[in-house]
Every structure is written in C-alpha cells, then in structure tokens.
Amino acid sequence: xxxxxxxLEVADLKVHFPIYRGVxxxxxxxxxxxxxxxxxxxxxxxxxxxxESGCGKSTTGLAVLRMLDITAGRVVFDGTDITRHDRAAxxxxxxxxxxxYQDPFGSLDPRMSVAALIAEPMIVHKxxxxxxxxxxxxxxxxxxxxxxxDMASRYIHEFSGGQRQRIGIARALAMKPDLxxxxxxxxxxxxxxxxxxxxxxxxxxxxxxxxxLFVAHDLAVVRHISDRIAVMYLGRxxxxxxxxxxxxxxxxxxxxxxxxxxxIPDPEIEATRPQITVQGEVPSALNPPPGxxxxxxxxRAVARCKTEEPQLRExxxxxxxxxxxx
Length: 326
Ligand code: SF4
What we know:
By secondary structure, the chain is α/β, with parallel strands linked by helices. It is 32% helix and 24% strand. The protein contains eleven helices and twelve strands. The chain has helices at residues 57-64, 87-96, 104-107, 114-124, 131-144, 161-173, 191-208, 219-225, 243-248, 253-260, 267-272; strands spanning 8-21, 26-41, 46-50, 72-77, 80-81, 97-100, 179-183, 211-215, 228-233, 236-242, 313-316, 319-321. The strands form two sheets. Strands 6-7-8-3-9-10-12-11 form an eight-stranded mixed sheet, with helices on both faces. The protein has a four-stranded antiparallel sheet with strand order 2-1-4-5. It is globular, with a radius of gyration of 21 Å. Iron/sulfur cluster (SF4) is lined by residues 252-253, 292, 294-295, 298, 300-301, 305, 310, 323-325.
C-alpha cells in the first residue's frame, strides 16, 4: 500500500434492508439505511460520523466491519477490497478491525472472568503462546486502560459503566487492531466519566497508532476527538470537513442547525455564526423525500431542492457539501 494511502476507503456504500409482505414474502420496498456514502480514513486519523438517530451512521460502521450485507458500493481496508469477503476471508480483518459498543455489557459474557474475556480473542487469533502469556497480557492491558491488574479475576457485573467500557477497550486492544469502530462509546456514561473515556481513547491512539471511525450524536464529544467530521442525514453524507472548519464555518443548512445547538465558548464565533433551527422529525428511510432529502425541513429550500438531489462536492479546500445553494 502506498505510504499516503487511506487505511479505510468507503465508496458509494449502500445498505438497504428489504421489506417483505404476504404469504409469498414479496418484497414491497426497502429501508435505505445507508444510500451512497463515500469517505476515507487515513492511518492514525479519527473520522467522526455524526447525525441524528436513524441517519445511518451506526449501520455504516457495522457494514465496514462486514456484520451486515452490503447492497452496493465498496469497502477497501488497507488496500484490500473486503466488500464481498465471506466469513473465512474476513477472519484476519476481524482481528484488525475492532468494534467498541455503546454498552459493552451486552457484548461480554457475564459468566466469564475479566481475565478470560480479555484472553478469549488471543486464543481465537493465536496471539499468545500459552495461558501464562495470555494472563500476563490481560493484566498489562487492564493497567493500560486504567484498571488494576488484580481486577482480572472479577466478573463484568461487578464493574461500573465506565469500568466496563475500559474492559471492552482492553479486550479490543488484545487483538492488536489497526482500526477501531467506536459506536456511541460514551453516550451511555455519566458526563464526568465520558471525558475520562474519551481521554483514554486519545491515549491509546497515540500509544498504538490506532485509526478511529468514531460514531456519535454528541457533537461536543465528536469535536474533542475527531480530526475530520462527516455529517450524515437520512443515509447520506451532507458535509465533510476538518473539525475546526466544520465548527467555525459549517456550510450545509443541516450542519448549521446541528452546530447552532452546541454552545461555542468563543463569543466572536458565537455572535457571527448562522443561527438555523430545523422543524419536525427525520423522515422515514423507507421512503426518503425526492430531491434533497433535507428539503421538507430546510429553511432555505428552493424549488430545485424538491426534484434534484444535490451531490457531495468540494466547496472549499477540504470541505465538501451536498447543497444546491453552496
Ligand atoms: Fe436546503 Fe436545498 Fe441545500 Fe437541500 S439543497 S440543504 S433543501 S438549500
């Protein structure tokens, strides 16, 4: 792979869930959860993926990990097209791409000790020579994520939410991954704990040179951790830019509305940035509006927006937007 090549490339990704009805299970439609999403993530970079609930950001993460069938488009990881890889072909990539979930409790077996939970992926992927090496590595990883090594003999129900997330991170690190897909990893935690876990993500990124796809709805969290941010709306990316540009000068009306809801500590920026509010709910992905999907809620919509879908294109250097008026 060339040295400046992205670690992850997603091109025109579509994930549609068919809807079947009747005794012969005839397909009557499809939920277009992800409908033509393209982005790249460079080695060592954090790309934040934001948007309201149901916009397709988590589905995008699951599709990259190939935990969902891809309807169309391409996912290329470290130079290999993994879009059509079956389970066996995905095996080495399953080690290199790890998922951090919102609630690690649901993904960790409560009958296993923490040591066994962390050692399990080392057995599956043959990452340690013997049980003693696995136990030693589990203790090291626990300390690395801010827990005590002697906690290894405890069970997951004995830990708080923040500690569980630390254990989930230790388990992911046991696989020596390159890419972490973090799906709302702090949204279930108390605000005071969120900052600690976000800092932990940053520490381990610096230590291991990890690359993150960071999916979240909380713009303050995403701003803190991301290098670049992609904003999703109803299955598509409407704007993508580096973090500071996106917060200082968002161009898409939807991004402007999202940002308007987040207080900025700089009074100069606060006074000059556009104040936009949107009405109503996100429409159904089963039947997205024609033209610009945002047009029923957009305060700037013009006639063309109802019929013609805007494409994502570069508006300023490094800032791409899908809006007819930009
Ligand atoms: Fe609003 Fe039209 Fe731009 Fe869509 S294309 S965001 S409806 S102005």
